[in-house]
Write a structure and sequence with these properties.
The chain has one helix and 16 strands. The chain is mainly beta. The protein has a domain of about 110 residues: Methylamine Dehydrogenase, Chain H (7 Propeller). The two termini are about 40 Å apart. Keywords: Repeat, WD repeat.
Length: about 250
């Protein structure tokens, strides 16, 4: 698949993201960042025949970076994209709000140059940047308000990712499968029945010992599952870079 005709863009593609997860998009869309600093939104050509090759048409193209685009990411609802590069600019694009071939965009200057990676969290509320200066910068996705700067690494960061945030009421599915325990209450079924001989209170049968052991194991499994659930609900950010270390952060 390639751009058609005069829509071919010169230069190396530095970042690519597909916008094909929204049901309202009948055609494949692709956002590409180039080494000349431009970002282009492509759309699959709907007029191709069944035997012809798939081609892409340019929806819009804009150049907001002075230097190469090093990374870009899309919101989970495919409404906006964010690009970063080796300059000090972070740019937010309204993917489908173009006017006469020019998209609506918001350009925000950063206090540092050289951003290697950008991630939009799946709730579309925050944006995380990994910088060459070893710092992770957190911004609000709506207005690009700076929220935090995370300092740990002494060398450049090259990669970063965020864990998915579970929405309120979202069903949790444990990674290792369900580990629930069902306990049967035989109080009503055995009411009035006393077929077994009574034993002294200080005497424990072998069956009861096994039952207590199984109960303790079940309790341990429930505690482990509860801990996994707690960890899965935390808002994690992971970053790595030149110094061969990965840092794990819990944020809001």
């Amino acid at each position: 698949m390639r751009p058609s005709g005069s829509d071919v863009q010169d230069g190396t593609a530095a970042g690519v993201n597909e916008a094909n997860k929204v049901e309202t998009l009948a055609l494949l869309h692709m956002v590409v960042g180039y080494e000349d600093g431009s970002v282009v939104l492509y759309q699959e050509n709907s007029l191709r025949s069944a035997k012809s090759k798939r081609t892409m048409d340019v929806v819009w193209s804009v150049k907001c970076h002075r230097n190469p685009v090093l990374g870009l990411d899309l919101s989970s609802d495919m409404r906006f994209a964010i690009s970063i590069g080796s300059d000090n600019a972070m740019v937010k694009y309204n993917l489908f709000g173009a006017h006469q071939g020019v998209p609506e965009f918001l350009q925000v200057p950063l206090k540092t140059t050289g951003i290697a990676e950008v991630k939009v969290r799946n709730d579309n509320k925050i944006v995380a940047l990994a910088g060459w200066d070893g710092r992770i910068r957190i911004f609000s996705a709506r207005a690009f308000k700076p929220l935090a700067v995370l300092k740990h690494h002494r060398e450049s960061l090259y990669c970063l990712d965020t864990a998915d945030v579970q929405e309120a009421g979202e069903l949790y599915v444990p990674l290792t499968g369900p580990a629930t325990t069902v306990q049967r209450d035989d109080t009503e079924d055995n009411a009035g029945q006393d077929d077994e001989p009574r034993r002294p209170a200080n005497v424990t049968s072998e069956d009861e010992s096994e039952s207590e052991s199984e109960s303790e194991d079940d309790s341990d499994d429930e505690d482990a599952l509860a801990e996994r659930r707690l960890w899965s609900k935390r808002h994690w950010i992971a970053a790595g870079g030149k110094e061969n270390r990965i840092s794990l952060w819990e944020i809001y």
